[in-house]
Each structure stands twice: as C-alpha cells, then as structure tokens.
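Throughout our pipeline, every protein is held as a single compact record rather than as scattered files. This encoding replaces a full spatial description with a residue-level series of whole-number codes. The remainder of this section carries one protein's record, kept here as part of the documentation.
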Amino acid sequence: MRSKTCCFSGHRKIPPMQSEQIAERLWTEIMDLISAGYVSFIAGGALGFDTMAELAVLKIKQSYPQIILTLALPCKTQTRGWDKNDIQFYEAIKRKSDNVIYTSEEYTSGCMFKRNRFLVDNSSVCICYLTEDSGGTAYTVGYAKNEGLKIINLA
C-alpha cells in the first residue's frame, strides 16, 4: 500500500496572502496522484498545512469515495493548549477520517518525530509546504528525501 500512499507535512503558519494559492496547488497535486492510482493519504493532525490537506482530502473524497484519509497522530493529548475552536475542528476531522492511529499514547519529547517518521515510512510521496531550514517540517521532508520519497513542495 505504501506505493500508493501520500503523506503531508507543512508549517503551522501559512501566510494569509498565499493560503488560497497553496490550497489550489494542493488540490491539483492530490487530484494528479488520484489519477495516478493513489488511494491513501496520511496527515499528522497539526494545525496549519496538515489541516488544509486533511480538509482537501475529505472534500475530494465526496467525489472519490475509494480514497482513504488516515490521521497519524503523535499522542492522545496533541491538542493540549489549543484554542477551543481549533480542538472542535480537529475532533470533527478525526470523526470524518477513515483511520486514526496514535504513534504514542502519551506526549514525550520525541513523539512528534516518531509521528513524522511514521508518515514517511508508510508513503511513497510527500506533499509539503516547506519554507524553513529547521523544525518539524524540515526534519520530515529531509527524512522523506533520505528514504527516497518523491517530494512535492508547494512553497
């Protein structure tokens, strides 16, 4: 299944002036992958780009019910410290997803990296929004490159 699976990784903050353009490019790339036979999409449940990708897949799924959205979440307390509205939105996405996997039960200093490696280890393509040389997205995309995934950077 890995050969027909795409993961997403991106920054939590997307410049508002670029959001619409990035969303359009994301939609196009997902549709291109579906046309190429991709059926599975994995996202990490973070705010920002992850949420944008999850919403795009859920919307496309209305016309292509065969595709699968899996949330690979770092721990059950991922939303600790989030705004109430963001938590409600996150929970709604979880309910609409086909699968929810927790890569760790509890928060640890390495649980986000464990989740990010899970995304890559179960995919052959990574669609990302990467503009910075450090942080979780840079780590994930670097790991994906090292593992031989095709990288599609929307930045």
In short: The CA atoms of residues 27 and 85 lie 25 Å apart.
